[in-house]
Amino acid sequence: MLKFQAERFPDVMKEMAPLMIEHFAEVGLNDAPFPVSPNFASYFTMERAGNFHLFTARDDSETLRGYSAFILVPDLVYGGCRVAINHAIYLTPAARNGFAVLRFIEFCEQEMRTRGAEIFEYHMWLDHDFGPLLERCGYAEKQVKYQKFTARA
User: β-pairing, 52-58 with 82-91?
Assistant: First the structure.
C-alpha cells in the first residue's frame, strides 16, 4: 500500500527526476516546439515563500512512486480565499491500482486545507482525463484551458 506525505522539493528533487521524465513522456510534454526544462529555482523560491507544496507517494520499501505539487496563492476573483492549483500529479503506472489515485487526491486536498486552501483546481491533458476520479471526490468541471506555442525569438 502506498504511503503519502508532504516532503520538501530540494530533498526529493534528484529522486523525482526519473519520474518527471516518465510523466513528461506520458502526457506528451516532449512534443512541444522547445525542450522541457523545469525551472527548479522557481520551485525553490516558491517553496520558501510558502506557495509551493509537494506531496509524495512511496511504497513499503520507501521507493518514490508518485508526486503531486500545488501552488497556493490568494485567489484573484474570490478575495480573501486561497486557491490550491495543482501543478502536477503523477503516479507510476504500476502504482495506479485499486483506489490509489483517489486516495492520493483526497490526501493532498486534506493537507492543502490545513495550509489554508479553500478553492482547489486541477488541470489535465485531454487524452489523460482523470475527471471521473475528481468527480468522485466532489469536483465539477468548471473551465476549459486552451494552449498555444509561439516561436521563440
Answer: unpaired
Contacts of 29 (CB under 8 A, 6+ apart): 23, 36
CA 2 to each of CA 51, 56, 105, 135, 147: distance values in angstroms, whole numbers, following the listed order: 26, 10, 13, 22, 34
Distance (Å, whole) CA 27 – CA 53: 22
Q: Output the pTM of the full model.
A: 0.92
Which are the contacts of 58, defined by CB distance < 8 A and separation ≥ 6?
2, 3, 4, 5, 64, 65
Instruction: Summarize pLDDT for 88-146 with one digit per residue, the tens.
Output: 999 999 999 989 999 999 999 999 999 999 999 999 888 888 899 999 999 999 988 88
Cβ proximity of 135 and 101 under 8 Å = no
State how far the Cα of 23 lies from the Cα of 107, in Å rounded to an integer: 20
Measured on CA atoms in the order 5, 10, 11, 16, is the torsion positive or negative?
Answer: positive
Q: Any idea how long the chain is? A: 153
Q: How far apart are CA 61 and CA 135, in angstroms?
A: 31
Distance from C-alpha of 35 to C-alpha of 47, rounded to nearest angstrom: 24
Alpha-carbon span 107 to 104, nearest angstrom = 5
